[in-house]
Amino acid sequence: MTGILRRRASATIFLTILLDLIGFGMILPLLPFYAQRFHATPLQIGVLFSSYSLAQLVFAPLLGRLSDRTGRRPVLLASICGSAAAYLLFAAAGSFPMLLLARTLSGIAASNYGIAQAYIADVTAPEERSRAMGLVGAAFGSGFVLGPALGGLLARFGTGAVPLAAAALSGLNLLIALIWLPESLPREVRGRSQAHPWLDVDGLRGLWRDVPLRGLMLLFFLVMLGFSMMEGTLALFCQERFGFGVAETSWLFAYVGVVLVVIQGGLIGPLARRFGERRLILGGILLMGLGLGLLAVAPELWLLSLSLGLLALGSGLHNPSTLALLSRLTRAESQGGTIGLSRSFGALARALGPPAGTWLFGAAGPGWPFWAAGGVMLVAWLIAWDLLRRVTV
Predict the structure, then answer these.
(1) Other CB atoms closer than 10 Å to residue 210's CB: what's the count?
(2) Residue 119 lies in a domain
(3) Which of 10, 25, 249, 260 is 20 to 30 A from 193 via CA?
(4) Nearest by Cα to 226 from 155, 173, 293
């Protein structure tokens, strides 16, 4: 692939992720309030968040492996179609079980995030991976800026307008990808992957025996567990402590997205070159732990804003740095499977975190989910400090 084609491919995959995440960001702040229409309990709301991630847990490595064999483009196109269908089902939901089904289908489609990251790894040199993964993260952050803000505005016309608009964005996304997204994985690389079974149990065992890869995936799991405990409980916390509704919660998520865009869209590349991925991983976990501790005791809006800013800053440093390190430790023909497996670890964390957070919220009080998440971050930092001293690239 020539330099011009690489730039076009990177720009298109950025736009593809951006449109996908705008739809996701529109729905996310709405979920607890939408579920309350069907008299959902806090624990059921946590399960609703988890259904999305459980679907990714199962399907992310399978679709990642499939993209190693058939190419990234067809799997990405199919997943975008699935997103549109999921949003339409969400809009038509008349009961909590139907809402749960819609989120599960949306989670299956969202397995394409790992494939998009593998796509970026296909078209960038190893030394540029942190910057490139930062651009992917900037697309995530931009989605969290534009999606919640747009969702908050559309909610004034009725909550059903939000998922319908998200479905329309998925249709636009599909059209752009059909026209401009080329295949990133060379035929010979696909051929090497096809020499192994699609459900390559031995290959997965080999990945698990690789101590650095296994350690990084465990670390990714712990960080995402702590972060998702906060994410699934934040709307309920702000509703109880500050009286926030859909619009106010949407603007909070948009604020987090702005910080992510600044870090991942412009600063992560220079920071990675100056400090290295290991220091950014450790620093990011430390900042997230501090943000969670402040959030647990936040009595006023300014402290709430500061704590969420620290969480976004830490996430913006940690996530692309960890993915870049994982990618650099992985062979070209296994990028999709490895990143898909890491997405499964993240999905498992996101499946466990929201129910744990909402259960603590109801059983122990509003601050306890964040204290528990901060404890998880402390464990993650200790593991990272020990692991990263022994990782060599």
Answers:
(1) 15
(2) yes
(3) 10
(4) 293
